[in-house]
Amino acid sequence: MSGTPAAGSSADQEAAPDPMGTLLTYLELRPGAQPDTFIGRSVPQVHGRVYGGQVLGQSMIAAAATMTPGRLPHSVHGYFLRPGDLEEPITFAVERLRDGRSFSARRVHAIQFDKPILSMITSFQADQQGLDHA
Hints:
Number of helices: 3
Low-confidence stretches: none
Strand order of the largest sheet: 1-2-4-5-6-3
Shape: globular
Oligomer: single chain
Number of strands: 6
């Protein structure tokens, strides 16, 4: 037996990267200069473009940050308009379209170089009793 720790040992686990933790740090947004704006950064990619799922996820996080507590995502529609640049921060501008008794709606534009790279509309619903289906 050699002097190296066995696979799965605590020394091996300490040296291993934490992919989920790394991803979660990239999903964190900081407040922007204007109300309801947020700034995000991009996960490095080998092809040099921002991953669309990341932008959509960050847009949802930005929309949820303007939401009344207790409202959950109900519907989302996103349109990828331009490729994102990995080196440029992304600004997420949230527009509060409606806040009703049960539903709220938000529009989010993910912006780089003063142009939207993603446009998303999402609705949130108050957590209520009702029918469940799959």
